[in-house]
């Protein structure tokens, strides 16, 4: 195929063929990034690698944060109505399991266990396809985002002006999924992921000798009462057909079995698929904490750290992605998911700007190769045959969006 031609003139089959022609380089991108994982906010080497690849392709780019990159591929017919693509770059504080010969993590205790190496590789593959094979009719914005796993890099990117300079028709993202077989794509309309907020509760009592509890205010039974009572918020104050999760993930208090502690610290997360329920739960956890503490003569403080929003796919770009995946893979390989995930994703902060968005799942599992471990597992891996499929589906979705 001579190029660069026009993306609008290529069929889905031709786009897939072009993506398969890039498979070796896309796989090399993934392995390079996988071998050098970096934690949230520390993606310096990853940024340098991405910038080097973009430079080699002649794609203009800029930093908007210390480790956030915005690149723009100009349109051949118009410079308005851009399609944005987002790829997160950070890794997790996990020690990788043995295996993955030739690309296992070189950084002790850090691993790409959530597929972000695949996300970046696919996005670089799309960039190469559009820069060297088939020019897009309108601009394509590439957002290489830090810190999805901790604190969230999407909102700071938006606040730093990452989306400025062009109008957007839509912003797309994919997420690797080992529970979906390689060669398939899964998607869903409406709610995709849950909101998540973190709450830190400190219960202050009055310590003393374990033999004389009547002279103390023991915060540990107070904490136990609070944990039990909080579960009743879910079973008695929330519509039972609306999913919510309240998890106490950390409780710390006390030093010795014969010493009553001065205080207990509890950390929990609250997840919901409904914005009003999200706010209700945050309010009720604070009220319940105060009530339980007062009942037992203790005091308590509640600190809320708001996390990621409810993840909602907009109808128009979601329909376009579904059509693109069907064109590339055939209807038998496109899965409409029945239920959302109670996991969370900060990508949806891009949608808070009013731009329509869609995140879909790229299947990377392969039972025959033993690639079945879930996200955030030290055994997580992906079937790299899925990478050019990711490139082709994304490029076809761009073509279709720009034809509207």
Could you please describe the fold and organization of this structure?
The chain has 404 residues and is an alpha/beta fold. It has 2 domains: 5-194 and 310-403, Aminopeptidase (3-Layer(aba) Sandwich), CATH 3.40.630.10; 198-306, Alpha-Beta Plaits. Helix content is 33%, strand content 26%. It contains 9 helices and 18 strands. The protein has helices spanning 12-21, 23-35, 44-56, 116-133, 154-159, 219-236, 275-295, 315-329, 386-403; strands spanning 5-6, 60-65, 68-73, 82-88, 134-135, 140-145, 168-181, 185-187, 190-193, 195-204, 208-209, 244-253, 259-260, 263-272, 299-306, 311-313, 334-336, 357-365. The chain has an 8-stranded mixed β-sheet. A 4-stranded antiparallel β-sheet has the order 12-14-10-15, with helices on one face. Strands 1-5 form a two-stranded parallel ribbon. Strand 2 (60-65) and strand 3 form a beta hairpin.
Number of helices: 9
**Spans with pLDDT under 50 lasting ≥5 residues?**
none
- Highest-level CATH class of the largest domain: Alpha Beta
Identify the CATH architecture of the largest domain: 3-Layer(aba) Sandwich
Describe the strand arrangement of the main beta sheet, using strand numbers.
2-3-6-4-7-18-8-17
Q: Please state roughly what percent of the residues sit in beta strands, choosing from under 5%, 5-15%, 15-25%, 25-35%, 35-45% or over 45%.
A: 25-35%
What is the CATH fold-level name of the largest domain? Answer: Aminopeptidase
The CATH fourth-level homologous superfamily of the largest domain: Zn peptidases
**Structural class from helices and strands?**
alpha/beta
The helix fraction, in percent, is 25-40%
Compute the separation of the termini in Å: 26 Å
Secondary structure: number of strands: 18
Shape label = elongated
Averaging pLDDT over every residue, what do you get?
A: 96
Count of all domains: 2
Radius of gyration: 24 Å
Characterize the main sheet. Answer: 8 strands, mixed
Order of helices and strands: EHHHEEEHEEHEEEEEHEEEHEEHEEH
């Amino acid at each position: 195929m001579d190029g660069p031609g026009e993306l609008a003139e290529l069929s889905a089959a031709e786009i897939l063929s072009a993506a398969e022609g890039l498979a070796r380089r896309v796989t090399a991108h993934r392995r390079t990034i996988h071998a050098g994982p970096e934690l949230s906010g520390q993606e310096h080497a990853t940024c340098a690698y991405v910038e080097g690849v973009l430079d080699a392709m002649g794609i203009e780019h800029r930093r908007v944060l210390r480790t956030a990159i915005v690149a723009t591929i100009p349109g051949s017919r118009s410079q308005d109505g851009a399609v944005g693509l987002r790829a997160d770059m950070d890794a997790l504080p996990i020690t990788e399991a043995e295996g993955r010969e030739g690309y296992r993590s070189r950084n002790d205790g850090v691993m790409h266990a959530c597929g972000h190496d695949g996300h970046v590789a696919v996005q670089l593959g799309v960039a190469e396809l559009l820069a060297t094979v088939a020019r897009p009719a309108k601009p394509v914005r590439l957002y290489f985002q830090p810190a999805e796993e901790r604190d969230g890099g999407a909102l700071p990117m938006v606040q730093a002006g990452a989306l400025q300079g062009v109008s957007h028709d839509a912003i797309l993202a994919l997420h690797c999924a080992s529970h979906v077989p390689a060669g398939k794509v899964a998607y869903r309309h409406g709610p995709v992921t849950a909101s998540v907020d973190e709450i830190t509760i400190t219960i202050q009592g009055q310590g003393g000798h374990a033999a004389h509890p009547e002279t103390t205010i023991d915060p540990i039974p107070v904490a136990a009462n609070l944990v039990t009572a909080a579960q009743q918020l879910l079973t008695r104050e929330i519509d039972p057909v609306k999913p919510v999760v309240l998890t106490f993930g950390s409780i710390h208090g006390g030093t010795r079995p014969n010493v009553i502690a001065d205080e207990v610290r509890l950390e929990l997360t609250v997840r919901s698929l409904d914005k009003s329920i999200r706010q209700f739960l945050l309010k009720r956890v604070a009220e319940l904490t105060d009530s339980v503490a007062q009942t037992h003569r203790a005091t308590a403080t509640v600190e809320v750290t708001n996390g990621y929003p409810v993840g909602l796919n907009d109808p128009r770009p979601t329909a376009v992605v579904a059509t693109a995946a069907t064109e590339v893979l055939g209807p038998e390989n496109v899965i409409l998911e029945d239920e959302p995930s109670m996991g969370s994703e900060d990508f949806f902060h891009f949608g808070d700007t009013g731009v329509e968005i869609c995140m879909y799942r790229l299947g990377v599992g392969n039972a025959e190769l033993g690639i079945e471990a879930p996200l955030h597992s030290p055994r997580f891996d992906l079937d790299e045959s899925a990478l050019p499929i990711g490139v082709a589906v994304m490029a076809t979705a761009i073509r279709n969006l720009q034809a509207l």
